[in-house]
From TrEMBL:
One Pfam family recorded for the sequence: Methyltransf_23
InterPro entries according to UniProt: Glyco_hydro/deAcase_b/a-brl, NODB_dom, SAM-dependent_MTases_sf
Species this protein is from: Achromobacter piechaudii
NodB homology domain residues: 50-120
GO BP of this protein: carbohydrate metabolic process
CDD domains linked to this entry: AdoMet_MTases
Molecular-function GO terms, alphabetical: hydrolase activity, acting on carbon-nitrogen (but not peptide) bonds
Protein name (Swiss-Prot/TrEMBL): NodB homology domain-containing protein
Length: 586
């Protein structure tokens, strides 16, 4: 059976007429709906809506779930505030409708382990959308741009593709903001899935129970069942040997294994949705860790070949041990080689390259040079990377906790970005954070064009900006030639790529350009461009030396650092940050 859940958020918000029409339609067409209520807004809804919700619920066509009291991001609340919002939302639904909520859906779909445990401990009878249905593919019929938000049938068809690509779907939408035309478009989307593609519509709890029965049955395993069973087998194998792995990789259990267990299902669902209708067959995961972003493609049977590559010997050993626990062995290879330092591939043998949380630590030019050779034309490349907001979050927490090591690491990364962007120096052997424009322009020179940009499911933000993001690229044919033939494109690439990545990027492609930007080891001596003023050189060196001393717990020349910070240049502003952080350890 192909399951479909209509997850409809935000009852109580804005207009109420679309929700009334929706529930009437559900009862008339005998289509179950699962509606989330914002408790704090229920006091203003009309009695007509209250009565129709009660009627539909009593007839079995409507399921009501708690969407919080104030529609706040639970991953940004204290445990006390999150619990209060959860309980108040539950109580409001009881008081207004006289109905016990069946489950919970996190506002904005954002949560962390602590808030998930909080929900489960307070209301163990709840199902939780973001956890209990993570084998379902989430898709929206709405055109999510500012001042729109309406279901659009044609856009929806583009997202689901011409073929059925998932056995289980959650159709998430927000009825209160719909126009009459938006409501009609939504019913067209549902009809396409139910009548045109054979999905069976169920409420959330019923879908969980039905799907669980299928997994326990003896029928041939579906792709989803194969992925779930494979992940369970791998996790069990790694749990049993985690103490051994942790001896050589201290965060194996509390980071690598934890993220594998919590993220792999939802990563797979996200990737499938972004790739559709493209279906990769030959996959390379560069810096794979435990394969959170790629293993399900092979476990499901969709990919014929998967190469898992990581240079850490403990990860390589764990992957080999894990594969021994799986019944299927063909089509998978585990590599511990440093592929970027090896000779470029002679043929483009992969149609999908994955690099999750590794790009920030690699030489970006060498990475794209390798990818250009490894990925076939029309193939895809996925980067999951840290944004500049990752550094801000990391530094803020380190500052609050007086965590010297973490704070210095974040400052060094920001320092590397500053001197790259403003002073023509690219430090190597340090973690870099890149704004989207820099990566997009560099990628274009190596024949990759940005196809989509999305946030990893459940990740957090800092100052409104995501700390992680996913960039999905498509491999084109000789974009470098196109760039060189367009003066506007060429000018943009030369200015952005030239200052940030240096002549090395131009030397590796056919795009003409030159720059004085130089590469030096972060821990070594630097030789600055002749165009850089002597005063700036002295300030940069002073900040670099201060960071080095701070990392090694050595005495810092506070007078010199304060002198640098007293200026008005970008390096002076940065020196002020270093000065304030250093004072915590004086």
């Amino acid at each position: 059976m192909k399951h479909l859940v209509l997850k409809l958020d935000d009852i109580g918000c804005d207009a109420n007429r679309p929700v009334v029409d929706l529930v009437l339609w559900a009862m008339l067409e005998k289509i179950p709906v699962s509606i989330g209520a914002i408790g704090g807004l229920l006091k203003s809804i009309p009695q007509e809506l209250v009565e129709i919700v009660r009627t539909a619920h009593g007839a079995g066509w409507l399921e009501l779930w708690n969407h919080g009291f104030n529609h706040l991001r639970y991953d940004q609340l204290s445990p006390e505030d999150a619990l209060r919002d959860l309980v108040d939302g539950h109580t409001a639904i009881q008081n207004v409708f006289g109905i016990e909520p069946d489950g919970f859906g996190f506002p904005f779909n954002k949560f962390d382990d602590a808030t998930l445990r909080l929900v489960r401990s307070r209301y163990p009878e709840y199902f939780v959308y973001e956890s209990d249905l993570n084998s379902f593919k989430w898709v929206s019929p709405e055109f999510n741009v500012f001042a729109d938000g309406q279901p659009r049938f044609e856009r929806f068809l583009e997202r689901v593709g011409a073929r059925n690509r998932a056995d289980n779907l959650i159709l998430q939408a927000h009825p209160p903001r719909w126009s009459k035309e938006g409501f009609r478009e939504f019913t067209r989307c549902v009809a396409e899935l139910v009548e045109g593609r054979g999905y069976v519509c169920l409420k959330g709890r019923d879908a969980i129970e039905s799907y669980s029965k299928e997994l326990r049955s003896e029928v041939p395993a579906t792709p989803v069942a194969r992925v779930l069973r494979g992940i369970e087998s791998l996790s069990s194998a790694w749990v049993s040997k985690a103490p051994e792995y942790t001896k050589n990789l201290s965060n194996f259990e509390n980071y690598f294994l934890t993220r594998f267990n919590s993220d792999t299902y939802k990563n797979w669902n996200q990737v499938l949705g972004e790739l559709a209708p493209f279906q990769p067959k030959r996959v390379l995961d560069l810096g794979c860790g435990l394969g959170n972003w790629s293993l399900p493609l092979w476990l499901s049977g969709a990919a014929d070949k998967l190469v898992l590559n990581d240079v850490h010997p403990t990860i390589v050993a764990a992957l080999k041990d894990g594969m021994a626990a799986l019944p299927r062995k063909d089509g998978i290879e585990i590599s511990g080689a440093n592929l970027l330092s090896a000779a470029p591939p002679q043929s483009a043998e992969f149609d999908f390259l994955v690099s999750a949380n590794t790009f920030n630590y690699l030489d970006p030019v060498e990475f794209f040079k390798f990818s250009q050779s490894a990925v076939s034309r029309g193939g895809r490349m996925l980067l999951m990377l840290q944004t500049p907001a990752f550094n801000r979050l990391r530094f803020r927490r380190a500052f609050e906790l007086a965590d010297r090591s973490t704070g210095v690491e974040a400052l060094e990364s920001d320092f590397a970005m500053l001197v790259r962007q403003k002073y023509g120096v690219f430090p190597t052997d340090v973690r870099h954070a890149y704004p989207l424009e820099e990566i997009e322009r560099l990628a274009a020179m190596f024949d990759f064009t940005l196809a989509s940009r999305f946030l990893p499911f459940g990740e957090i933000k800092e100052d409104g900006e995501s700390v992680y993001e996913c960039l999905l690229f498509r491999k084109m044919n000789n974009m470098a030639r196109e760039i060189a033939s367009r003066p506007d494109w060429l000018s943009e690439c030369q200015s952005t790529v030239g200052i940030n990545f240096g002549s090395k990027a131009f030397d590796a492609t056919s795009v003409p350009g030159n720059t004085s930007t130089t590469y030096f080891k972060y821990s070594g001596s630097w030789v600055f461009p002749d165009s850089l003023a002597a005063g700036d050189v002295e300030k940069i060196v002073a900040v670099k030396d201060s960071l080095y001393s701070l990392r090694r717990s050595e005495v810092i020349n506070f007078n010199l650092l304060q002198h640098v910070a007293d200026g008005e240049s970008p390096i002076s502003e940065f020196a002020e940050r270093v000065f304030e952080f250093s004072k915590k350890f004086s």
